[in-house]
Write a structure and sequence with these properties.
The complex is a heterodimer. Chain A is mainly α. Chain A is built from 16 helices and no strands. Chain A folds into two domains: 72 residues, no CATH class; 212 residues, MetI-like fold (Orthogonal Bundle), CATH 1.10.3720. Chain B is mainly alpha-helical. In chain B, the strands form two sheets. Chain B has a two-stranded antiparallel ribbon with strand order 1-4. The interface between A and B is large, with 105 and 106 residues.
């Protein structure tokens, strides 16, 4: 298509530029604003006098001698022991990602290569399971977990998150394995491999792009989960998101809302970095389901 | 692939799903038929110099024994489903019988907790989903036409609202719309009303939650549509141009029909996700004027003294039925497609 014929009239070009700018502001500004504000004291971030105070920080300057302070972070990380929640989150996410990818690649591969009718029913069941609100499942766990005395521990939560994650992982890896030609593993089997050897020697070396993408979404699910972790973990084992929620209960009255702001920013920054490095994979993962099925 | 090999590959993930998704649904169904034990009361005579007083207290020991014997509580049949905090059949009948007009029926039903939550959940699902699709489509079309240099940063920042967990995202907005926050203060000066607060009225709270929902999910629709736009066949667009189609007509008659399947996909994902709306209600502290089905369950399980398992389970069952009704058309379509293929 020639560029000349496709060139926009000036008003339309301006309009779309303005629109994109507006959208950028709407999407990004709240996060940048909160990040900036997390280095201020409450009197500035929630200023009664003038919203400009949140930018210049006169109250912060009066209290700490500089317009920026780490008081919120110190309060959250040291006093309220947010670092514990960070460690718990790290443990939970690493194990959830590893286990759900292991189970998911095996299952997704089987679903992609078996032509029987029950694969359809399995996939449909997975779709229904994916739609289940997590809190309904949690209300099913609580009583049995109390009875078995496994409530409140990290391994329980990890297993539950893996299971909740399975339907999505299966769907995604299933459609990814469908895109790997059948000939590849069938040739290996003609050469005398068993099905598992074919999987190990022929499929595993080429499956990493799909696995990385699926892994990213498993990570996001475990990292972002609030429903399961807040109901199944005891206070001292809490991960980041439930911890932030507990800050709101305990700190809002005492004028320590800045602890929560600092904790929220601490939870957002890793995602920032993640998007920076994996933008392409995230985009391809989001569209994978759409394009293929 | 023979059945045995298939099973060999899939059993771990199948086991996980059966144990932690299918069985809990069964457990919820079972629990919903039971209700908490009645309190066992004991009366203790307390005699002092000024005569005897009798004191009624809960027999903690007997209660603990009873709980250990029957952890799920006592059998209640479908009683929990029909009680005032769930389907409220008696109350509905009463309301219909005694109200004068439709408006009164509606406002009285809105006071029943289950229906209040159901109506909010449905409103959220069916208002946010179409708005997300429309906004996402517009953003995708516009971003697709801006210079290449800008596209990367736009996608980067667009992903943020979606990938940040709803609780954190809603908190970020909640602090900004606080009457001392930047948006709250701006709205106050805009409408010249220093008492204006988005948290005060139910209508404004609903609108805030809807806005949040669109902000959170529009990036998803945008990314999917944007990827779809890259695959729109250039030939068709060019022949439309040769035939004299204007810019708008090309979007209307080439792009939109081509992207329609993607819209169905987004709608499906959004219906599933929006139906379980829950975290924004906590983030915005909106429970007073807006509750959802998921929030009711969460609230029951968090009840101050001991979790109300029966009540939570009954709401869960009703929610699951709702999800299945929501998915029925999709399942039917998939079934037909599958049959056509085989």
């Amino acid at each position: 298509m020639s560029d000349l014929a496709n060139r926009k009239p000036l008003p339309l070009a301006l309009l779309s530029a303005v629109f994109v700018l507006c959208w950028l502001v709407i999407a990004a500004f709240p996060f940048l604003w909160t990040m900036w504000g997390s280095f201020k004291v409450e009197g500035d971030f929630f200023s009664r006098a003038d919203w400009m105070n949140a930018i210049t920080g006169p109250v912060t300057e009066r209290q700490y001698g500089s317009p920026f302070t780490l008081a919120g972070y110190e309060g959250a990380w040291v006093q309220q022991e947010f670092w514990r929640a960070v460690v718990n989150t790290a443990i939970v996410t690493v194990f959830v990602v590893l286990i759900s990818l292991t189970l998911g690649t095996l299952g997704g591969y089987a679903l992609a290569r078996s032509g029987f009718r029950y694969t359809f029913w399995l996939l449909m069941a997975a779709l229904v399971f994916r739609a289940m609100p997590h809190v309904t499942l949690v209300s099913g766990y609580l009583l049995p977990f109390f009875q078995l005395n496994v409530w409140g521990y990290l391994p329980t939560t990890i297993i539950v998150l893996v299971a909740i994650n399975q339907p999505f992982t299966l769907w995604m890896l299933h459609s990814f394995f469908l895109s790997i030609p059948k000939d590849l593993d069938e040739a290996a089997m003609v050469d005398g491999c068993t099905r598992f050897q074919a999987f190990r020697l022929a499929i595993i070396p080429v499956m990493w792009p799909g696995v990385v993408t699926t892994g990213l979404f498993s990570f996001l699910l475990a990292y972002n989960d609030f429903t399961v972790t807040s109901m199944l973990l005891s206070q001292e084992n809490a991960t980041m998101i439930p911890k932030i929620n507990s800050f709101l209960g305990s700190t809002q009255e005492e004028g320590k809302v800045m602890y929560a702001v600092a904790a929220v920013v601490s939870a957002i920054v890793p995602l920032f970095v993640l998007i920076l490095f994996f933008q392409r994979q995230i985009v391809s993962g989001l569209t994978a389901g759409a394009v293929k099925g | 692939m023979p059945h045995k090999t298939f099973l060999f590959f899939i059993w771990p993930s199948l086991l996980a799903m059966i144990l932690f998704i299918a069985l809990p649904i069964g457990s919820v169904a079972y629990q919903s038929l039971f209700i908490e034990h009645e309190k066992i009361l004991i009366e203790a005579k307390n005699c002092g110099p000024f005569g005897c007083t009798s004191q009624v207290s809960v027999d903690a020991e007997a209660m603990a024994r009873l709980r250990a014997e029957q952890p799920a509580g006592r059998f209640n049949g479908l009683g929990t489903y029909t009680n005032p905090t769930h389907l409220a059949t008696d109350e509905i009948a009463d309301i219909v019988a005694t109200s004068k007009n439709f408006g009164e029926i509606r406002s009285r039903i809105m006071n029943l907790p289950f229906y209040k939550a159901l109506i909010f959940t449905l409103a959220y699902t069916f208002i946010v989903t179409p708005l997300v699709i429309i906004l996402g489509f517009i953003i995708a079309v516009v971003v697709n036409s801006v210079p290449k240099l800008l596209k990367g940063p736009v996608i980067f920042f667009s992903l943020l609202p979606m990938l940040v967990t709803p609780l954190v995202g809603s908190l970020v907005l909640f602090w900004m719309i606080d009457s001392r926050g930047i948006i709250g203060a701006m709205l106050q000066s805009l409408f010249n009303d220093p008492t204006l607060s988005l948290k005060a009225s139910p209508t404004l709270t609903w609108l805030t939650l809807f806005t949040y929902g669109v902000w959170h999910s529009a990036p998803f629709a945008f990314v999917v549509f944007y990827a779809g736009l890259q695959t729109v066949p250039k030939d068709t667009l060019e022949s439309a141009m040769v035939d004299g189609a204007s810019r708008w007509e090309r979007v209307r008659f080439v792009t939109i029909p081509y992207l329609a399947p993607l819209a169905t996909f987004i709608a499906l994902m959004q219906l599933m996700d929006n139906f379980r709306v829950f975290e924004p209600i906590i983030g915005f502290s909106a429970a007073a004027s807006a509750t959802s089905l998921s929030y009711l369950i969460y609230n029951d399980l968090r009840a101050a003294e001991s979790p109300l398992f029966g009540s939570a389970a009954a709401t869960s069952m009703l929610t699951i039925i709702g999800v299945i009704i929501l998915l029925l058309p999709v399942l039917r379509r998939n079934w037909r497609e599958f049959n056509r293929k085989t």
